[in-house]
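To: structure desk
From: M.T.
Subject: fold request, one chain
Message: Could you run this one when you get a chance? Sequence is below, nothing fancy, just the single chain.
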Amino acid sequence: MDISVFLNPVKEEIIENCHLTHKKQLGNTITIFKNEDDFPELEGCLIAIVGVEEERYAVDNEGCKAGPDAIRHALYPLFNHWPNLKIVDLGNVKSGLRVEDTYYALSEVFLALLKHHIVPVIIGGSQDLTYPIYQVYENTGKMVNITAIDPRFDIGEEGENLNSESYLSHIILHQPNYLFNYTNIGYQTYYIDNENISLMKQLLFDIYRLGTIKNRAELTEPLLRNADIITVDAAAFCAADMPGVKCSSPNGFSSEDGCKMTRYAGLNPKLTSIGFFNYNPKYDVNYQSANNLAEMIWYFLEGFSLRQNDFPTSDNRDEFTKFIVRLENYDELIFLCHKTSGKWWMEISDHFIPCSKSDYDMAMRNELPDRWWQFYQKLM
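Reply: Done. Structure tokens follow.
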């Protein structure tokens, strides 16, 4: 299918207002869809930037549909350090008469990129756009892991219509269901009902409080390495760093935390998409939020450029050091460490689970790592 019918080119004034004075800035080095009669060639492309100007299912966040072009304004002037990384900006998905029409258009664009092995960086718009991205997996039959950097779980109330604060419940209840695991990074307890925290644990989802992760971004690396889809809510960052959010919080991740986490995301070879949502230029101060989000995207690109084939397979086992730990009252635990990247994995019933050296150290103390037990329960 010709996906150009679903996309609007980037407006010339957006590019002109970026003051692109150096030939190595991103706006001068990536391929930009800016003419309806000249759609970019996707062959050989590795990353596609896709904007979605959709806010009709945003909860109390009118104005967030202007986010994509504001982020471009901050992203294009940054310098491109990866001349061999072919990046294309496909403009903005056309808004349909109904939100569901926009969802359909986004799904078709994402499916086409998936078939070309192109990773989309989606800039929105409201976070309910995660839902049509997930729906694409119906066409692949592949189980999917979603990781959300988000202060809330977005499961809404029972029976609530699909919106930016209830999209996860619609994913969980969707049939056929291809969600294997959901991971939340940085939830803030005072925003969440205790019953919803209990529900997440009953569903064997991985949830991590802000206080556990903040200023310790290295703890998020295995979580982000296990993701097929990453969805980032701008509200996950503190108001001082991210004022461009309608319901900003004085607490949250720092922009530095965000850059570290998105770099980890870029390093993940199984990732199929990353999206940045709920940013609202109407509340931004001197484009501070747009600049922070643009820098997070820049670090994602850097991580992507440094990807290694360090996922264990039957063909590359000689690239890993194998450790066998025998625990009292449990079968042996098998750990693998890649000799070059230093990344750790646990092997469970022919599955390879991202972990960290701290999980291995825990096993050496005769303690069963939570990550191992969490996954084992899913297999039971």
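Reply (cont.): The domain at 3-305 is CATH 3.40.800.10 (Arginase; Chain A). Let me know if you need anything else for the meeting.
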